[in-house]
Amino acid sequence: MKSTIIEKATKLFLQLGFKSVTMDDLAVSLGISKKTLYIHFENKHQLVKEVASSIFEKVTCDIIKIKEGTSNPIEELHCVKMEAMKYLGSEKTSPNYQLQKYYPKIYEDLKAKEYQYLGKMVKNSLQNGIDSGLFRTEIDVEFVSRLYLNGMRGIRDIEIFPIEQFKIEHLFENYLDYHLRAIVTPKGMKSLNLFKSTT
To answer: What's the CA angle centered on 129, arms 128 and 135, to 5 degrees?
Structure first.
């Protein structure tokens, strides 16, 4: 039952936002009593925490699949961006906005997990780019991987980039372009321009 609740709550939270969906709403949508919900989750905060963690794990697994299915690290980064956009958004109902605004501790915990889970993948991607001649050989992989992940956190910060002023899809596109242009070789630039012209 617990997994069913998490699955349904995930759909509702992604559609309407973490704050917007009440425990009553969830109970009605599942056709169960609110008391049953509280058997499995002490409160809504615990439910949000488990759902957010579940979403994070799914995104991480999807990114691994993308990494395995793309032909080069430039395409990989753009595909990862598209995957991330499924879970983010520029509206006040977006999970990204509502976690930061209403569940900051959960959001901070997820941020702390990002480098642990994604750091190695980013470093491998950078090294693949160097080995294939798309990225400059002199870049410091450890430094650039941390800079990249920190930047990805930064563009999702609603205090720095208020959603009323900045759309997340434009922030992602601009940041990715900024990141890649800083590290590509002439060969990499050709690949980047070709990829952008066909998407």
So the answer is: 150
Tokens of 75: 């395409």
DSSP for 65-126, written as a single string: HHHHH-SSHHHHHHHHHHHHHTT--SSTTSHHHHHHHH-HHHHHHHHHHHHHHHHHHHHHHH
Contact 129, 74 (CB under 8 A): yes
Sorted by sequence, the CB contacts under 8 Å of residue 160 that are 6+ apart come out as 154
Q: List pLDDT tens digits, range 88-100.
A: 655 666 777 788 8
Its pTM surpasses 0.90? no
Set out the domains of the chain in order of their start, with CATH numbers: 49-197 (1.10.357.10)
Query: Token match 């058997």: residue?
Result: 39
